[in-house]
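Q: I'm writing up a methods section and want to include an example of the input and output format. Could you take the sequence below and give the corresponding predicted structure tokens, formatted cleanly so I can copy it straight into the document?
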Amino acid sequence: MGELIVVRHGRTAANAGGLLLGRLDVPLDELGRVQAARLAEAVLAQAAVSRVPIAAVVASPLERTRATAEAFGLPVEVDGRLVELDYGELDGTPLADVSPEVWRDWRADPDFCPPGGGESIAALQVRVEEACEHWAAVARVEGTVVLVTHVSPIKAAVGWAMGIGPGAAWTTHVDQASLSRITVGGGRRVLRTFNETAHLTGE
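A: Here is the clean output for your methods example:
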């Protein structure tokens, strides 16, 4: 059996401000850097106890995920398939300013694309599942793989693990600097934990 640890990046000022944050390339804020350090410390400590090596730390191309990944102190690989959903012209918009009609259409149709050339949840699901299959193959042979990514790709990874495709997009919540664990092997995928955050508070 191998394990994928799927991680959301630490907080940014845009997250704190309640903005819809997709491909805008913004840094972690001060709290986000603290969160990244605590996250990395917790994952590395568990790896030491379990004696299962971390085979790879993989990040989306955006600065906030790369900075979170770099907190592990290990080489970071970049995988473009883990990048956040493209929100088109809605990127950077306050969540409260997205119209009820857009939210309705978005939730009803996985093929809905945000205006201005945005990406559908269905399209995101395809690329994230490709990434998960690739890195699961590495994990089964070499050890734990940490995937540092964003809200929508994490929900897609959960959908992949549970065999429900994009069904997790609107029925799950993912906190900043949280982690979820997926074991892979023997032809099975199992979501072992979801949205762990105890490492952020020391509890």
